[in-house]
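Two proteins, back to back. First:
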Amino acid sequence: MKKTFTLSLLIGATFFCTNNFLNSNPVGAPAGRTGSPADGQTCGASGCHGVTPTDVNNVITSDVPTTGYVPSTTYTITVNITGGGVRKGFQVSPQNNDGTLMGTIAAGAGNKIVNSKYVTHSSAKTTNPSTWTFSWTAPAKGTGAINFYGAFVNGFSNVSKQVFTVQEATGTNIAKNNDNNQFTVFPNPVTKNVSVSFYNNENSNVSINIISLDGKQSETVYENNLNSGIQNLNLELNNFKAGIYILQLNVGNKICYKKIVIQ
């Protein structure tokens, strides 16, 4: 009777340990797993997930304008993992080829900083899609293009990687970033409140609409006449169900768009 009881405990313990290893590390990836030239490995390395990662696009996105980042400006970086994996996680770092952190990073909800230059999940997610955001403050003028290296886990045997590049705004591009067609939305994903920041060159009517991807839902959440200058608007989005939407900013006769995730 005693032997049977001991064997049952051993079987239960073995299953518990194995089950914890089946998916993304629930408290974050160890440092140096982004796949960057300096790191030389991803979460697929031997001793971790032990699989060859696939190359993907559009897992890492940002609100850096197409004209490039403005030095010392803070932007939102988004990691969005889709798929049916039981647990999902990531690690991202903006680095040069020597592994030096480019700019500064600050963790958002559900993620943390490791060894000062890596952002990783602090709690693995099970939703599809699973989304995290963190802040990145661009480096000094003249730094040039920045590569964000990222590795992603979608269940134990599904590891992928991406190199996401942002350019530096130079010359006339910097001036364009002071135009009202450049704006930031934070945080993203949104829970209840969101901050919309932009610059308008002249006094004008400003309105903000939230539009569902299928176009069936559209609601004006802000409208007012504003003086010229930097604008920071705080909006409540309690009336919207969880999903992906388009935030439409109308400033005078100009219209700009930003994709947002409402949780």
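And the second protein:
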Amino acid sequence: MTRKLRAAAVQLRSGIDPAANRAQALPLIREAATAGARFIATPENTYRLDRNRERALAAAGPEKGDPELAAWGRIAQEFGVWLLLGSAAIAAGNGKVYNRSFLYTPEGKVAARYDKINMFDVTLGGGETYRESDTVEPGAQAMLVSGPMGAKIGLTICYDLRFAPLYTAYAKAGAEIIAVPSAFTVPTGMAHWETLLRARAIETACFVIAPAQGGMHEDGRATWGHSVIVDPWGKVIAKLDHDELGILVADLDLTHVGEARAKIPAWQGGRAFVGPKEHP
């Protein structure tokens, strides 16, 4: 018996105004829902993308009572879909923010929240340096949630993609889909984006849905775009070959997860070992 779920990834170019970002996303979400998608995911920083630390921190507030978060719930309710708001900056109460995903039910309720665990603290060269931990308080809790058709969805965000143990943990917990809403830089996106997504899909035998930010943003940052959906065998089944706004829609046959895992059970983990031992 097949279990088919139509899913969509929305590619955006968010700026510093949350209401404008929502307005940008709305017609794309409508298009995806009209195409029959029941699970729709948007990128990291959908709510606001702003690398100006002082301005971003000043603009962030608590989750409770946030009118924009409520508006996203109403979008999910209007179209009757499971909607993943890739992430929003939520005040952590310690001078920093959480980079938090919100998964809304078709009734507009929050089914799950996930705070990004791994911080993008990198030096890429050419004057391009990022210190996400200066602004963002890291999370510590992986989150697996039952979504449409009972599909088990694991939540991650962007730089988490480079940390395979998190994805292995989701596979062992029964994940069938792993979401990777992202805002990859152009240099790292060009070099690693699709390769890492395919690797995580192969390792976990999960569908991987990766909606991305793309293009030159209001704050002067450029992101890679190239949103992707990958199947449990590592095959790219939908892809945007650009950094412009757009959507991907794909039919996910969830029975393929079990089939892939039966063929190659490496997702369960290998044999225990010691070392490595340095040879004298």
